[in-house]
Each structure stands twice: as structure tokens, then as C-alpha cells.
Amino acid sequence: MKYFDLHCDTITECYLKKAELFDNELHWSLKRAQAYNPLAQVFAIWIPDEYRGESAVRRFEDVYKTFIFQMTKNSDKISFCHNAAELKSALNKNKTAALLSIEGGAALGGKIENLDKAYNMGVRIMTLTWNGRCEIGDGVMVKHAKGLTEFGVEVVRRMEQLGMIVDVSHLSEKGFWNVAEVTSKPFIASHSNSQKICSHKRNLTDEQFIEIKKRGGIVGINLYRGFLRDGGKAFIKDVKNHIEHFLSLGGENVLALGGDLDGSDLPYDMKGVEDISKIYDELLKSFSEQIVNALFFDNAYRFFENNL
């Protein structure tokens, strides 16, 4: 089974718990994930909202050191990819392809030069905010949330110049439409579900999903219980409901996976990455193999092939 996932917090958990990437008790381990081939994973460096300014920059740098250490230690099995050619090469060698993202633009500490620095360190995707307010703009959980700041607009435009992918998961709705206004390239929601199916404000409205589709972007389905079903009593069948709705909006070339492993509470009938295949099998009961494979791998691979 092919598997390409747009968002996990595993490397941050490795940093916090001093765990090994290859074999651990987290949601995602390289050992268990290697059951899928080809395999590609975007690893996020998460910046919690209590970090701002220089403390946020240091947090990013500390987790980055863990990421590089684990990439080096497991270099026979996983390859840190910076562009489409490296992504293709890693998969052709039967290695896991690793991409690096930032979850929370507070990592820049409010300085545009830190964006260039992050790009040079290999970051290719950035979620502009986490839930709260940072120098770039407001997250979706901010009361009376506003959109992007002037600095945020500068960051988004510089990301496009660099070739870094803008990620609108966690961003306020006003911020989302600001991104749509000031960008010309496709952007993504790496781990966001449908607000029509689950009313949590972290999920996307139909209008937002259609805008991402129109722009040639992708949306990663999040496995967090609280984003799958109102009340949070979610199972794999609830994942299917979000996919079905997005497909009804013409999302067959838009949908991907952004499981949020190690950053969320998974559906009650899942323990970790080893159970991703259960979603695949469940979807095959209702959708064609072509659509399921597109969701699990092909759409994400094509997007990065064209935009990385």
C-alpha cells in the first residue's frame, strides 16, 4: 500500500520524550511505517503558543537538531528531501522520503530573515499560525480573530518567492482569505477536515475547500477525534464521512492524508501508523481503487512533484 502523509508531530515528540524515530511507543515509528511502500512523511516542528520571539526561534532550532540527528542515524532507511528530484530518488531507492515543515510561524520570531534561514535548513512547508496569535496573524482559536498582519503578508509573499509551501491549517478564516488574496501559487491545508461534517472551527468550510481546489492545492484529512465528529466519539467510519463530503465537492484530485499522528487523539479503533491500512480497506468498500490510491499517495506526490 502506498502512503504519503502531510503532517505528523512525531519528531517533536521524539525531542520532548527523547524517543528514537525508528522504534518507539509513539503513534508513528519508522519501523512500523515501513510496512507501507512507497512511503513519504512530512515531519512538523511544532511551536506551541507559549513560545514567542527568541524562545520560539530556539524551540525550532532545538527540535530541528533532533530531526537532523534522527535523519542521519537512520539514513539507510530514510532520506531528508529538499526538492522533487530528491523525493523521487528516495522513493526509487525504497527509502522513506522525509519532508520538513514548521507548525506555527512564531518560529520566525517576527524576523523575515529567519524565514530564509529556515528554507536553507530544509523547511519546505510552513503552517502560518498555530491556534493562537503570532507575529504572522491570528489562529482559528483567537476570539474575534483577525487575519494576516503586515508582517504575515510579507512572509507569505517571501514564501512564494523561495518556493516554500503556504499551509493554512490552524489559520483564522480571515487569514485564509488574506492568503487567497495575496498569493498566486497553490497553497495547502495539511491537516484539516470538513466543517460541514464536524462543526469545529479548525475544520474547513466548503468555500475554503473549493478555493484550495481552484488554486491547485491539497487538503490532508486529519485523524484527530475532535475534528472528525462533534463530541469526539470518532471511529474510522467518521474519517470516511469527511472524505465522502469533500469528494461531493469535486475533491478527487485534492484529497490527501494529514493524520496529525503524535499530535492528536486518534479514532478509537486506531492505535497508530500500523492502523492506517484499516482506513484504506474501509474506503475501498465505497470508493474505487483509483480514488483511494489518489487520496493515500498520488495527489500528494503530484502536488510536490509540481510545486517543490
Automatic annotation (TrEMBL):
<keyword id="KW-0224">Dipeptidase</keyword>
<dbReference type="InterPro" id="IPR008257">
    <property type="entry name" value="Pept_M19"/>
</dbReference>
<dbReference type="GO" id="GO:0006508">
    <property type="term" value="P:proteolysis"/>
</dbReference>
<dbReference type="InterPro" id="IPR032466">
    <property type="entry name" value="Metal_Hydrolase"/>
</dbReference>
<keyword id="KW-0645">Protease</keyword>
<dbReference type="GO" id="GO:0070573">
    <property type="term" value="F:metallodipeptidase activity"/>
</dbReference>
<keyword id="KW-0378">Hydrolase</keyword>
<dbReference type="InterPro" id="IPR000180">
    <property type="entry name" value="Dipep_AS"/>
</dbReference>
<dbReference type="Pfam" id="PF01244">
    <property type="entry name" value="Peptidase_M19"/>
</dbReference>
<protein>
    <submittedName>
        <fullName>Membrane dipeptidase</fullName>
        <ecNumber>3.4.13.19</ecNumber>
    </submittedName>
</protein>
